[in-house]
Specification:
single chain; 304 residues; mainly alpha; Herpes Virus-1; three-stranded antiparallel sheet
């Protein structure tokens, strides 16, 4: 069964074009059914006149005509008038565009959804997402996958992937080979559905999801492939690594400069210390010489 409405040829989705079933088995989107219902309300329909059957008179009684009078008989009071009550919405007759069978519909929302078609278009959307190149901006078909970072790439970017510094040791294989060896991103299994692996991230519920999770409890939410998120994390990690490398280089340069300054200060300290010691040794020598001269002069003046 095609996943498009046979009236408007729009793809079924989970908003305006939800597939709904008639009891005759044919399916149309919610918007087209609403248009059919509106058209039926504005188009005058042929209605059958209801006839009121008269009750036959009993053979024991005879009808009393208005002109006849019965002595002692009083006219029966008219029936009390009932208060006016609001009219409830009446069903609308809608003919199936395919088989022309008429259906009495109160609200379009009362028609059951075609969950088989909903699952079909979800599978098609997910298949389209997982098979698309997650690196380039153009909608190219993904033919290769990196086993290390999980990126799905087209043939052109698969040949360029390992030329980047952060991916020079990565292993790029075809999608068939990646499926055979197992993708590192899908190696952890869903807790709710143990046979399915996590492949998507729900941005509303902030949960990892498998395909069954999306189909059963997360319809209409915003979800992204894990490979795409992992690619963003890899790029952010690369950016942080480059920034840290620059900061480390600046710190190392500052450390080297500090060590050079420290060595220069130590050299200056040793030079000054040597000069001080040399000066005081010279001063001490001169004092000793002056002391000797004074003592010699004293002995000359006062011989013993």
């Amino acid at each position: 069964m095609p996943a498009v409405c046979s009236i408007c040829f729009h793809d079924y989705d989970n908003s305006l074009h939800v597939p709904r079933n008639f009891s005759c088995g044919h399916t149309f989107c919610h918007q087209c059914l609403e248009n059919l219902r509106t058209r039926s309300l504005t188009t005058p329909q042929r209605s059958s006149l209801s006839t009121t059957s008269t009750t036959p008179h009993s053979p024991m009684t005879s009808p009393i005509s208005p002109s006849s009078s019965v002595q002692g008989a009083t006219a029966a009071p008219p029936p009390p008038s009932s208060p006016s009550t609001p009219l409830s919405p009446s069903p609308t007759m809608i003919s199936c565009p395919t088989c022309q069978v008429s259906h009495s519909i109160l609200h379009i929302e009362s028609l059951p959804k075609n969950f088989g078609l909903i699952e079909t278009f979800i599978q098609q959307n997910l298949l389209e997402i997982t098979q698309r190149c997650t690196v380039c901006d153009e909608p190219h078909e993904g033919t290769h996958q990196c086993l290390d970072c999980g990126q799905v790439m087209c043939g052109k970017l698969s040949r360029q992937h390992t030329k980047y510094n952060f991916a020079k040791d990565h292993r790029v294989v075809t999608l068939a080979e990646a499926e055979a060896v197992g993708n590192s991103l899908s190696s952890f299994m869903c807790l709710e559905h143990p046979t399915e692996s996590y492949q998507f991230y729900d941005e509303i519920c902030q949960q990892l999801l498998c395909l069954n999770c999306i189909q059963r409890t997360h319809l209409g939410h915003r979800f992204r492939p894990i490979a795409e998120i992992f690619d963003e994390m890899q790029q952010l990690q690369t950016k942080i690594r480059v920034n840290l490398s620059d900061q480390i280089q600046r710190l190392k340069s500052a450390e080297d400069a500090t060590q050079d300054e420290s060595f220069t200060l130590h050299v200056h300290f040793e030079e000054l210390n040597n000069e001080i010691n040399h000066y005081f040794r010279q001063l001490q020598q001169k004092l000793l010489e002056h002391k000797g001269r004074l003592q010699t002069h004293l002995f000359k003046l006062c011989p013993s």
